[in-house]
Amino acid sequence: MRPDRHRAWSRVRPYAALALDLGSARTRVWASGRRLILDVPTVTFPGPGATYPIQRGTIVDTPGTARMLDRLLGHRLPRLGRPLLILTTPVLGGVAYRAQARTVVEVLRPRSVLTVPTARAVAIGAGADPTPPLLVVDLGAHLTEVTLLADGAVTDARQTALGTSDLDHRTPPSRITDAVVAMVTAMLEQDHTSATFEALRRGALLAGGGALRPDITYRLADRLRAPVQPVPAPHTAAVRGAAKLLRAAWAHPSADCP
Predict the structure, then answer these.
(1) What is the DSSP string of 224-236?
(2) The pTM is what?
(3) Which of 104, 102, 145 lies closest to 122, judged by CA?
(4) What SS3 state is found at 124?
(5) 244: enclosing H helix or E strand
(6) What is the pLDDT of residues 36-55, one digit of tens each?
(7) DSSP three-state, residue 205
(8) How many structural domains is the chain composed of?
(9) Residue 102 shares a structural domain with residue 87
(10) In angstroms, rounded to a whole number, what is the distance separating the alpha carbons of residues 30 and 226?
């Protein structure tokens, strides 16, 4: 991100709504007063060096993550109001992750906190039809998730602690595609309906930074023998989808945001 984008934050009015995507490598924010996305490394600085408070989709340092959000956003919160906030969460993060995440965002004094599974946010951000079965593959820096959605709800999900940041001369891109194929195969074998097959035939949506890598996407289409479609701006699809949900919630009379 360009340095001038950081300076621009001080020239806009305080915002009353925030969409957050807390990734292991990057934190992305949509703010109602700015209507653009802040995209920065997920790091905090308790001492002389940077540390990483979220690892492999798990919040390992709750106070550190809260400090990071306060440093990034605290000075831009409305003093007399409290923001409405929506937070993307790993599909398999479960209750424990959501509870930790809610603790983290308390530093922003939210009026209300909503959560949405990352895969659902990706589908919304891509403008995909949520009614028929849909396969979403999120190729992140430290985590890869495969999720089956039906009518917009999660019906199956798998993940592996492997991402694009792990790739080097000893770990080729085929490791990620092999892992995705194995997860999809397991979903097909354990699905007693036709939903996974229908979703695969329809084509998988690819999100995350890995969706920008042809060496992954082409091999994945070949191995799955199905179409794969990187979503527009795949690295920010989740936060953009969360922002769409947030705008709808913010417009609802019950939100009563300043």
Answers:
(1) HTS-EEEPSSGGG
(2) 0.86
(3) 145
(4) helix
(5) helix 237-251
(6) 678 999 998 766 778 899 99
(7) strand
(8) 2
(9) yes
(10) 33
